[in-house]
Amino acid sequence: MISGSIVALITPMLDDGAVDWESLDALLDLHLAAGTGAIVAVGTTGESATLAVTEHCDVIARTVSKLAGAIPVIAGTGANSTSEAVELTAAAQRVGADACLLVTPYYNKPTQEGLYQHHKRIAEAVSIPQILYNVPGRTGVDMLPATVARLADIENIVGIKEATGDLQRGREVIDVCAGRMAVYSGDDATATELMLMGAQGNISVTANVAPALLAEVCALAIAGDTERARALDARLQPLHDVLFLESNPIPVKWAMAQQGRCGGHLRLPMTELAAQYQPQVLAALQALDLL
């Protein structure tokens, strides 16, 4: 089972918007050294919405090739078109991804039955292990625990990234999964508490800038070391907060540029972090010696 700190990796870009392959390779090396448990390639933090299908598939393939099985690669293959999600998921399987992460269809606002049929169709079409991704704050649709429970009966749906940030909801999802599939946090601010409740890991934005610290806090929480996990989590909370001052991945890319890990460039309609927030992000990085 994939577990621990799972980075929702940014897609580094050059100033003309092209993928920065050299920086991507360096980031993968960084995560290997820092103890990251798995990589999410071209998830929503990786700006999947603005990468062309060929670029999307190329980034997944490069990540799989570079890591060469050292740690698992989870390919972001969600879409608001079921047929497109099937296409992307099949492409990820062909290049050797270990699993796929499928965000609920955004904008369409499907019913709960529509969500069930969407994910069922993808799972039946492509045999690769699949992880559901519920993030209603970004998609406009909320996959309810009853729907998660139905999908848990499908053999190759193996997990869910629960990103509501609501710990009561997280507890409900853990309960309905009842060991049938893994639960991962998708909200850095509440991830430690969800792991202490029984979640298997954190698909993390913060891990982009603090990979070793996230690997440590996840290991402590999964091991049930409540006191030490909460103490480290308290140190990390200011960083979690500032990385969402504007829409993700705007703050995290700016932070990584200050660390010299990438150029910080984004594709429109995303723009650079507003000047008013930059000192707060910088202060949070400095407080944890991340510069």
From TrEMBL:
Binding site for pyruvate: T45, I203
CDD domains: DHDPS (cd00950)
Coiled-coil annotated spans: none
Annotated EC: 4.3.3.7
A Pfam family assignment: DHDPS
Record's catalysed reaction(s): L-aspartate 4-semialdehyde + pyruvate = (2S,4S)-4-hydroxy-2,3,4,5-tetrahydrodipicolinate + H2O + H(+)
Feature type site, description Part of a proton relay during catalysis: T44, Y107
Domain of life: Bacteria
Lyase is among the record's keywords: yes
Keywords (A to Z) from UniProt: Amino-acid biosynthesis, Cytoplasm, Diaminopimelate biosynthesis, Lyase, Lysine biosynthesis, Schiff base
GO molecular function list: 4-hydroxy-tetrahydrodipicolinate synthase activity
Enzyme active site: Y133, K161
Pathway: Amino-acid biosynthesis; L-lysine biosynthesis via DAP pathway; (S)-tetrahydrodipicolinate from L-aspartate: step 3/4
Subcellular localization, as worded in the UniProt entry: Cytoplasm
InterPro entries recorded: Aldolase_TIM (IPR013785), DapA (IPR005263), DapA-like (IPR002220), Schiff_base-form_aldolases_AS (IPR020625), Schiff_base-form_aldolases_CS (IPR020624)
Subunit structure: Homotetramer; dimer of dimers.
Homology family: Belongs to the DapA family.
PANTHER family the record matches: 4-HYDROXY-2-OXOGLUTARATE ALDOLASE, MITOCHONDRIAL, DIHYDRODIPICOLINATE SYNTHASE
Task performed by this protein: Catalyzes the condensation of (S)-aspartate-beta-semialdehyde [(S)-ASA] and pyruvate to 4-hydroxy-tetrahydrodipicolinate (HTPA).
Name recorded for this polypeptide: 4-hydroxy-tetrahydrodipicolinate synthase
Species of origin: Candidatus Litorirhabdus singularis
Classification lineage: Bacteria, Pseudomonadati, Pseudomonadota, Gammaproteobacteria, Cellvibrionales
